[in-house]
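Project standup — Tuesday

K.O.: blocked on the structure for the chain from last sprint. Re-posting the sequence here as requested.
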Amino acid sequence: MDNYHIPVLLHQSVDGLAINPNGIYVDCTYGGGGHSSEILSRLDKGRLIAFDQDSDAIANKADDDRLTLIQGNFKYLQNYLRYEGISQVDGILADLGVSSHHFDAEQRGFSFRFDAELDMRMNQESELTAKKVINEYEVHLLKKMFRTYGEVKNVGRLVSAIDTARQLGSINTINEFKEVIEPITPQKMQSKYLAKVFQAIRIEVNQEMEVLQEMLYHSINVLKPGGRLSVITYHSLEDRLVKNFIRSGMFEGQPEKDLYGNVDVPLTAVNRKIIIPDEAEIKRNNRARSAKLRIAVRN
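H.V.: unblocked you, prediction finished:
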């Protein structure tokens, strides 16, 4: 399993669930099964419901009767749990990072290190691909995507280069795309720039922000009072959403106060300060360097 994906902040994130050995838990992102295995090791008669929309991850399922692995998007968390006859759970863990497997599998098109079709789908049955985004999205949508999801500085020049090239013919592969944007790619920061550009496309292809918001809303409905939410994020957009939701039950703005000035919020932060990997973990797994863990308890 570890070859598929090295779990990040493994013990801290599972410790954050304060596991009841007979409780019911959810792992939103099964991947290589690292976090799930750690949760299962702490269960007695408890149960774990895990999700992954990628068939490659489903093939990693551990042989454990306490584990139910659902091939589906965790944005439908509540509906899937209802189908399993579960109305409330004791804890939810979500490791929102793209797995090492996705970055290392050349044919999936997640990494600019390899040449492959512009794909980037976590769910390989989805119709929206990176190729479709690059070739068919209107200019204003591309600008919004790169600005919002990648925080790219030279958005105008980037989108202009893409739009000019696609007028001449379809941009189909990673190398073709890199060649199109090469003239406007800062040479001294090439890898960092490409990482931002590819992140923006990947977030759009997989609708990652919308999926995260849906999951957080559903978590309020399915967590028992005292139940725990443990979320690992990898970029500022995700972390901001999680932080705001834990603080106020909203993604933007401030919650309303009652006549006495009190605020009724669904969650309370367990860790006031974000938890990040230590130097030893980052040395073992460089992809952990941007990880941030937030833990909350259901009021």
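K.O.: great, moving the ticket to review. The radius of gyration is 20 Å. Strands lie at 24-27, 47-52, 67-71, 89-95, 223-233, 267-269, 292-298.
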